[in-house]
Specification:
CATH topology: Jelly Rolls
Radius of gyration: 17 Å
Number of strands: 11
Largest sheet: 6 strands, antiparallel
CATH class: Mainly Beta
Order of helices and strands: HEEEEEEEEEEHEH
CATH architecture: Sandwich
Number of helices: 3
CATH superfamily: Jelly Rolls
Strand order of the largest sheet: 1-2-3-10-5-8
Distance between the termini: 25 Å
Number of domains: 1
Shape: globular
Strand content: 25-35%
Length: 167
């Protein structure tokens, strides 16, 4: 089955999504905390730590645990997928385009598609812990997933570097 392009068929794609995802040793129902897989540092373009619960049998979304060290930030980035961060612990704020919003333990932070954004840990002593859920797998299956990172730049610097063109 083609995942994109002229041979892509929505009927085939939807037909391939089973009503029930059968668990197995490779796709368990539970991924324990010590089984969450840390992404290699060269794949994370900022000082945060990202670990993925990649063995869960999710077909359309990814689940990460993200840690932002005290006083640091994630990179300035944008992507086609939507993201929701649940703040497990810590306090901080997020820049999403030209808006800045504060958050704390127990809050949910939404990042809309294709918006420049970055998350800040406002504590000098404690890390921020996020549970991050994004629909990147679905967009990847449809062949429309895209991500850009501008590193530790500002929104203005990211716009100047990448412009408004998503290509």
């Amino acid at each position: 089955m083609a995942q994109s392009g002229p041979d892509f068929s929505m009927a085939e794609f939807l037909g391939a999504v089973s009503d029930t995802m059968r668990p197995s040793d490779l796709r368990p129902i539970v991924v324990h905390a010590d089984e969450v897989e840390r992404l290699p540092a060269d794949q994370v373009h900022n000082p945060t730590t990202l670990s993925i619960a990649g063995k869960l049998p999710t077909a359309s979304f990814e689940i990460f645990r993200q840690t932002i060290p005290p006083g640091l930030t994630s990179d300035m980035q944008r992507h086609h997928h939507e993201t929701v961060h649940y703040v497990i612990s810590g306090t901080g704020h997020s820049e999403v385009e030209d808006e800045t919003e504060s958050w704390a333990t127990g809050d949910f932070v939404y990042t809309p598609p294709w918006t420049w954004h970055r998350h800040h840990n406002d504590s000098a002593e404690e890390p921020v812990e996020f549970l991050t859920i994004e629909n990147s797998r679905l967009l990847g299956l449809l062949g429309v997933g895209r991500r850009q990172s501008a590193g530790l730049s500002t929104v203005a610097e990211a716009r100047a570097r990448f412009g408004g063109d998503p290509s």
